[in-house]
Write a structure and sequence with these properties.
By secondary structure, the protein is mainly alpha-helical. It contains 6 helices and 2 strands; from the N terminus they run αααβααβα. The chain has a two-stranded antiparallel ribbon. α2 packs antiparallel against α3 and α4 runs antiparallel to α5 (105-119).
Amino acid sequence: MLVLLGNILWFIFGGGIFACLFWYLFGLILCLTVVGIPFGIAAFRIARFAAFPFGKQLIDARKVGDTRIITTGLANFLWIILAGVWLTISHVIAGIGYLITIIGIPFALAHFKLAQVSFAPLGKRVVSTNLAQAANLRSANKELDKRLGK
């Protein structure tokens, strides 16, 4: 219930609707070129996250069973240089602005989540917090088994 309330307040008062519309527009522009399609798809993913960020987390796509394209690292590098740094900085600045007010702290946390997803979104998935915790635990167990030689 608290997650739903947070998402509604964020969407209406915290800038969620504007962030969502911006990311969808940005994604459409990116999809106009063949080279920009993967970036456009990432922008659409961010748009859904920007609209309703509470109760969701960003994790590596491989942790939830998706495959990662070999060129994801290069594409993320290009994204970081061309857009990621600037988008991340803008979300961090907005988050700091919300931190100044006591009532804006939840919105600040949402901006910090958006900063994380804006930096390098390719090869990542936005999932519920519960699924992220389970996937991270499963991944940690696999790593532990590997280190212990099981």
